[in-house]
Amino acid sequence: MSDIIEKKITQTSVDEVNSSSSLEKGLAPQISVKDLSATEGNDPALSKKIFLINDALDEIGFTWYHAKLFGIAGFGYSVDSQMEMIQSAVKTYVNYQFGVQYPIHTEIFYAALIVGSIVFGFGSDIIGRKLCFNSSLLLSAVFGLFTGGTSSYAMYCIFLFLSTTCAGGNIATDVSVFLEYLPSKYHYLNTSMAAWWGVGQTIANLISWAFSSKFCSDPDNCTSKLNRGWRYCWYVNSAIVLVAGLIRLFVLKLDETPKFLISVGKDEEAYEAIMKISRKYNRPCSLTLEQLKECGDIKEEYYNYSKHGASISALWKVTKANIKILFSTKVVTRSTTLILLSWLFIGVAYSTFYNFLYIYISEHGGSTGSSIYITYRNSSIANFVGIFGPFLAGLLVMVPRLGRRGTMAVSAVASMAVLFGYTTVRTPAGDAGFSSATYFFINAYYACLYAYTPEVFPTRARTTGVGLALVACRVSGAFAPVIYWFGEESGSSVPIWVCGALIGCLAILAVLMPFEPSKQRSV
Question: Does residue 421 belong to any structural domain of this protein?
Answer without folding.
Answer: yes
